[in-house]
Amino acid sequence: MTEVVLKLLFIVLVVAGGMLPLITWIERKQSAVMQDRIGANRADLMGVTLLGLLHPAADVLKLFSKEDVVPEGANRLLHLLAPVIAFVPALLVLAVIPYGGAYRFGDTTLSLVVADVDWGMLFVFAAGSIATYGAVIAGWASNSNWGLLGSMRASAQMISYEVTMGLSLVGMFMVAGSLRLPEIAAFQDQSFRLLGFLLHMGFVEGETLPFHLDLLRLPMWGIFLQPLGFLLFLTCIMAENKRPPFDAPEGESELIAGYHMEYSGMRFGLFYTAEFLEVPVIGAIVATLFLGGWAIPFLSQETIIAFVAGGFGEGFATGLCLVLHVLCFLTKVAILIWLQMALRWTLPRFRYDQVMDLCWKMILPLSILNVFVTGAGILLVEGVIS
Amino acid sequence: MQGEFVGLLLLLALALVIAGGFLLLHRLLSPRREFAEKLLPFECGELQIVSPHQRFSVKFYLVAMLFVLFDLEAVFFYPWGALFRELGGYGLAVMAVFTVPLVVGLVYEWRKGALEW
Amino acid sequence: MIEEAVALSGILFAIGAIGALVRRNVIVVLMCIELMLNAVNLALVAFSRLWADATGQVFVMMVIVVAAAEVAVGLGIVIALFRNRESVNVEEVSLLKW
Amino acid sequence: MSEVLFYAFAAIAVAGALGMVLNLHNTVAAALSLVGTMVALGGLYVLLEAYLIGVLQILVYAGAIVVVFLFVVMLLNLRRDVFPAGRQWMTKGLALGISLVVLVRFLRLVPGSFGEPAALPEGFGGYREIGARLFTDYVLAFEVTSLLLLAAMVGAVILAKREPSEPDGDPRTPVSRSEAS
Fold it and tell me: A touches C (3+ CB pairs < 8 Å)?
C-alpha cells in the first residue's frame, strides 16, 4: 500500500508538478525561438525573472483571480462537469505507464508502475474515449454557436482517430505478444541482429552469423520493428490531443476557441491543464511502445547489473540500474515532447475535411494493411525476433 | 490481481480531488461582478442571430456509426494481436476472414460517399 | 458477491424494461434496451465467476457486438423517422398499427 | 474493501439507470447518467474478476455506444423535448406493475440459491484466456460477427444518408444551415 502511494506521488509530482509548468514555459520559449522572438520574460519577483520561468506560476495565479462566468442559458451542472471529465482521464492514464522496469532487492521485487494491469494499453484507449465527453458536453452545455461547432468537430475528430489509434498499435501487440505495458517495455530491452533472418531462413549454414555480421544490431524497439505503426500511431495520438496541426476544433481564426470558448478562470484552466498534461503523457506512451520505454539501447538490465555487481555488490547495481532507467525514460519523454512542440510550430493547420480524410481514407486502410503485413512477416522471419 | 487496481482507484480519487479543489478554490478566490451583458454567449460582440439549438449535418451521425462498428472490430484485434504467436498461421487466416467483410463495408461507405466531408 | 450481482442485474433489467415500456422518446427507449442488455451481461459475468468458466465472458463480447449493431441501425431508423415525421415520440410513429 | 467497492459501484449503477429513465426533459443528461451506469458496471466486472470485459465495457459501451446516442440527440436537437401530457395510463400502470411483480419474485429467488464460487484458475478473465476461447472454440461466432457488423454498416448508411440529389448543406461546412428550424 505505501509502495503504491509512493509511486503515485512520484509520478504525480514529476509529471503534474514538475513537467507541466515546464512544458508551458518550453512551449512559449520554443515558439519564440522558431519565430525569432524573445518570448516570455516579463514575470518577475523583485527583479528576478529566471528567463521567464516564473510565468507558469503567474499563469496559475491569473487563472485563479479571473471571474467565474457561466453564460446565460447554459446548463450549469454540465458546464461545471465538463472540465472535470476532460481533466480526470488525462491524469488517470499515468497509472498504467511503466517508468522503470522490475527490480529485485533481496526477496522483494519493485516494479515501477502504479497499476500493473493486464490490459494497460486498453485502459489508455478507454480513458481517451471517456475524455471525448468533456469536449462534447463543454460545447453543448455553454449555449454558444462557436462552442457547439467546436465540440462537434472535436468529438468527431477524437472518435475517428480513436479507432485508427487502436488499429495502428495491433502490429506492436503482435510483435511484443502482450497488451501489458510493462511487458511491452521489457520486451524492448534487448537487441536483434539485422541479418538474423538469414540464419533462421537457412541462407547461412551453421548456428551463428559471421562475427562482423553479428555486430550489425539494432535495439529491439518498436520504431525499428514497426516503423509504419509508429508513424500512424504518432499521427493519431497527436490528433487525439487536438493540438496543432490538428486543432480544427478550436482553430482560433475560424472558431475563436472552440468548445471551451465560454469557459473562464480555472474552469478553462482545467481544459488547458488537460491539454498540456497530455503532451508528456503522449510522450510517455510513445516512448514506452516504440522507443523502448526505460530500456537503455544495447545495455540490457542483466548486462548492467552483472557488470556493476562485480565491484559494488548486487543491491547497489540494481539501485543504479533503477536510477539510470528512470533517467533514460525521462530523457526519451523529453525528446518526444520537443518533437511535438517542433511539429506544432512547423506544420500549418489541416482543414477539417483533410483531418477526416486522413483518418478514414489513409490511416485506417494503412493500419489494417500493417496488421496483415506484420502477421505475414512474423510468420516468415520468426527468427529475427529472439 | 485486484490489488493492482488500488493504484488506479487512488489516482482516480486524487484526480477528482485536484479538479474539485481547483474549482472550489477558484470559486472562493475569484471576484464576482456579473451584469446582463457579460453573461451573454460570446458572439463577436453581437447578440446571437442564430440559436445554437439547431440540427446538425447527418455526417456526424455517419462518422459516429462507423466509429462504433470499427471500434468493435479493433476490440477483437487487440487480444488477437497479443495472442498472435500462439495462434500462428491459423490465427492469421481467421483474422483475414474476419476482416474481409469489414473492408468490403469500408469500400461501400467510401463509394457511397459516407466518408466525404 | 455473486448473489448481489445477480440481484443487481435483475434490478437494472427491471429499470430498463419499465423505461422501455413507459418512456415515449425513441432514443430513451433505445437507451433502456442497452441497459437491459447490460443487465444480462452482468448476470453472465456473475455466473462465469460462479463456475470459474470463461465462456460467459465470451458471450458478453458477442452481446456487445449485437448491442453496437443494434445502436447503429436503430439510431439510423430514428434519423430516418425524424426526417419524415419531425418527431421522436413513439406514439406518433404508429403507421404499422393500422 | 471489495465489498464496500461493490456496493458503491452498484449504487452508482442503479442511480445512473434511474437518472436515465426518470429524466424527462434533458436527453443529453439522460445519456450521461447512462455513462455513469456503464462505468460503474465496468468496475463491477473487475470486482467479479472479468478484467478484459471490464475494460471493454468502458471502452465500448461508455466510450463508443453512448457517444452515438449523444451525437443523435445533438443531431436532432432534442435539447428540450417536452411531450404532451401522457395518455395511456392504463397501459403504463400495467407495465410498471408486471415489471415490479416479476422483479420481486426474481429477487426472492436469488438469496442462497448458488453454492460457493468455484476456485479460479490462473489468469482467469485475462485477455489470454478469453482470446484463446474466442479464436478456437467460438471461432464461428467470431467470424459471423463481422457479417453482422457489415450488415449494420450498410443498413445505417442506407437509412441515414440522403441521396446526393437531396440538399444536405454545403459539403464544406459541418453545420447545414438549411436545416435550421
Answer: no
